[in-house]
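Teaching assistant here, posting this on the class forum so everyone can see the example we discussed in section. The complex has two components, and the goal was to see what a joint structure prediction looks like when all of them are supplied at once.
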Amino acid sequence: EAGVAQSPRYKIIEKRQSVAFWCNPISGHATLYWYQQILGQGPKLLIQFQNNGVVDDSQLPKDRFSAERLKGVDSTLKIQPAKLEDSAVYLCASSDASGLSYEQYFGPGTRLTVT
Amino acid sequence: GDSVTQMEGPVTLSEEAFLTINCTYTATGYPSLFWYVQYPGEGLQLLLKATKADDKGSNKGFEATYRKETTSFHLEKGSVQVSDSAVYFCALSEYPGGYNKLIFGAGTRLAVHP
């Protein structure tokens, strides 16, 4: 079974530029998560989708971050404009929405450096 | 709000030494508890979990017991190997159903030397 795929793996941009990250979850997983992991900290949830609807985006900085999940499969996270403090690893995870499994499967992440 | 606190690293051990990584949590309800591991260059992987008080999660020689009275979920292994070198994250989820938002600790880096 293929795991969660993310691209790109690394990205370097200047502040005030825009950037987009892509995630392809495990086939059949209805729930998709984006986490931000700043160096030296644990991952923090940015947004959670159930199919193509948003369940939780309370910690998403909506003035600059946006995310979508068209057709309930792939998802894109965008930052526009980027700030220095956005430098982090962006992790995508997916899980089976059956309610019986607690496990989230994580992708390898995208490391963003804002200069 | 809910939170997780883990011991700071790095933890440096010799092969075959005993490992303990402390984790305590604050939660308003009855969370499920998890340990995730991140090997160099790889994504987070679930190591073990416990869903109610006194449950013991175990996997690959690692164990952790859900202690409600001390709000703790300490990770232990009797004899570590070089291949156990990684960053370990303690996490909780308040929602036992499908909406399982995870709250993570800051992570503890483990380095095991031959």
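For the discussion questions: Chain B touches chain A at residues 4, 32, 34, 36, 41-46, 49, 51, 89, 91, 93, 96-107 (CB under 8 Å). Chain B has a mean pLDDT of 92. Think about how each of these relates to the inputs above.
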